[in-house]
Amino acid sequence: MAGSKKEVPERFASGFTLLELTVALAIVAVVALAVFQLQDQGFRSFLRTRQITSAAMVAQDILAEAQLATPSTGRGRIETPEGEELLWERVVASTGFPGVLDVRVRIRLPQSLNPILEVTTYVAVHAP
Predict the structure, then answer these.
(1) How far apart are CA 54 and CA 61, in angstroms?
(2) Domain containing 110: what range?
(3) Where are the beta strands (DSSP E) in 19-127?
(4) Per-residue pLDDT averaged across 80-108, rounded?
(5) pLDDT surpassing 60 at residue 14
(6) Residue 2, domain member (yes or no)
(7) Could you tell me if 126 and 71 are in contact, meaning their C-beta atoms sit under 8 angstroms apart?
(8) Residue 112: helix, strand or coil by DSSP?
(9) The CATH number of the domain where 77 resides is what?
(10) What is the pLDDT of residues 50-92, one digit of tens each?
């Protein structure tokens, strides 16, 4: 019986159903959302890394100044090459050892009270 096979009309033989298109579109949307979230996370990570790098360079300069001359407690502002403003604070304290000072540098953003970076070093001071 050659005629027992049901023939599908030609207009339904090719193409996708509405359900298949909806599922495919949902999958594409989920994948696109995941990619956009990863991109956003990567960009935030880049900005944070740039801030920490700038803060480390500022702290290094302030510590170098403390090693070249007798350090004192102080505060200041500095603008990074990227145009971002950072606040710095240098706290000098006695260590209990003669001729040795504890120098602590904190770097933070103007809108934050928490430091991005905090570095401590010891400086030997020479008596005149």
Answers:
(1) 11
(2) 16-124
(3) 74-79, 85-94, 100-108, 117-124
(4) 93
(5) yes
(6) no
(7) no
(8) coil
(9) 3.30.1300.30
(10) 999 999 999 999 999 888 888 899 999 999 888 899 999 999 9
